[in-house]
């Protein structure tokens, strides 16, 4: 396998790639242990080292003056292995750094990167966001999912942030979101959050709080720009706080404790409604509950509710929603 990789790196196909596009070098999935024998042209703008066996960074990477995007995803890099990057002033103009799926236990020192737009340290073993205060306030996308983080801290200076991904951590409280006036997506699924606190945030368009410990839906009322809301696998017993979310297109409240469908009469843009795995007993009030979206809704999930056992289940739903294209796993032409 290594012989084949060496041929691909040094052979004709790689030479042709470099001559036609000397700004991009894609070495993903070569299972490389190091970059010995690999030429790194000084013209490189993007270097992709995804899915290799690297445990340290080749110092020549720090001498690429035009480098903007560097992916080290899915390697074996630990804290010591990544530390030299904090001294590589020649690549201080880096805009995207991906360290996803490595062996980091802390946020590395990113202080020299003054133009950073995308920073990804997901799927590591990071227990604290300490160190993010040194990351440039130019950041637009921050990904720290699947770690061991317990507190949302050192993030309030990211005024340009559009995507924040902190899913699959150990967060218990939503906090320090008030400055994110440009935020479009907030991903906090698979944490331990018990209450919604958006700190006055109103601009966000996508929110995921799936697989948390919510028992109430209150807290979203001010998010009038919201288009997608994911709340599955919680302990919510009542649909509420939704009437102001008039731009909502996707609503997922599956796998909760709902007994009825409420507070969505005003949601005229609703296209996808996921209510499966609840305790909704009847379809009788559904028509009134979805009055504004009857002509818009194309997908509804209600399976594994008592109401889905009705003999007229599909017929009733198709009558309520004339534009329906999918009911549970059943797709209609």
TrEMBL record:
Keyword terms of this UniProt record: Leucine-rich repeat, Repeat
Q: Is Repeat found in the keyword set? A: yes
Give an example GO cellular component term for this record.
cytoplasm
Q: Which Gene3D superfamilies has this protein been placed in?
A: Ribonuclease Inhibitor
User: Cross-referenced InterPro entries, in alphabetical order?
Assistant: Leu-rich_rpt, Leu-rich_rpt_4, Leu-rich_rpt_typical-subtyp, LRR_dom_sf
Domain of life per record: Eukaryota
Concerning Pfam families, the annotation shows:
LRR_4
What SUPFAM superfamilies does the database record attribute to this sequence?
L domain-like
Under which name does UniProt file this protein? Leucine rich repeat 4
Organism equals Dillenia turbinata
